[in-house]
Amino acid sequence: MTETAFAPRVFSGIKPSGGLTLGNYLGAIKRFVESQNAGTESMFCVVDMHAITVWQDPVELRRATREVAAGYIASGIDPERAILFNQSQVSQHAELGWIFNCVARLGWMNRMTQFKEKAGKNAEKQSLGLYAYPSLMAADILLYHATHVPVGEDQKQHVELTRDIAAKFNHDYGVDFFPLTSPVIDGPATRVMNLRDGTKKMSKSGESDMERINMTDDADTIAKKFKKARTDPAPLPETLEALKDRPEARNLVDIYAALSDTTAETVIAEHGGAGWGQFKPALADLAVERLAPIATEMRRLMDEPAEIDRILGRGAERAREIAAPILSRTYEIVGLIRS
Ligand code: ATP
Ligand code: MG
Check: CATH 1.10.3720.10 for 217-299? Predict the structure, then answer.
């Protein structure tokens, strides 16, 4: 089984589990746009069925689904070039997800660190869906024979599980049917950290709004959040190595690098020696410069929910055209009669 036997196709998704963050933008959306613009066939999904693995208020779920779609489009995803849709409109995701529930092993699922983090001490009270989530994610990807999945660092383990599921399916049924998909985790901001705790990832569903920058935050809010971001008192060092044990400082440097399309090395070369009173306002200005036009466009799009729904519906139609023959062939391989 070679990984190059399949035509290149990019797939990735974001959960409508809250408002989009700077972590989602830098670690995912910005890189999706780059992948689309590089000319690779690309599919971007609003993975609403993943969102409901934890409780979502139905009204808020609809709003958040449209916000993620608006975030994609406002950032540069072109729904004509890329296929943009919400997962639940393509029922094949759930169907292939079930097949993969029967391929994935409990031992594999038990190793998933995200479930452990999200479940915390209360694992018994979590939904079965939250536990099975990575197997549905494998279905999201393999339903389209996607070869590359741009994701943040936190999703690496789930893409590796996707490869394990593909390999076991191919092996058990003696076929070469599913590709061994590669995670694509690159750039300076594959793990944007929480602004109040540099050991935790910035997340949409995190507890406090002060720990994240939302893509729709206004300039004052962005400035305030960076100003209050936790740091140590030392100024920025002259070398990157000196940031090794300073996670909060390193995070702000990485965010600066990603927002300015450069590297952490370059940021340190330019700002080494600066104190926080200097660097934080510069970072806030840069973030506002980058995010404000996107936020304005997001608001404009969200004022037209029917137009967003139309785009998602059209994307889902195109997605089903690719998904249907792959699911049919999967059923045939497994031995399920379709008459
Ligand atoms: P939730 O808290 O509900 O899990 P989230 O912010 O983690 O939300 P997801 O929908 O789980 O967002 O992830 C969408 C994409 O954004 C994934 O590719 C993920 O790796 C990426 N991503 C999420 N948070 C970060 C982050 N802090 N830094 C970089 N990438 C991130
Ligand atoms: Mg997440």
Answer: no
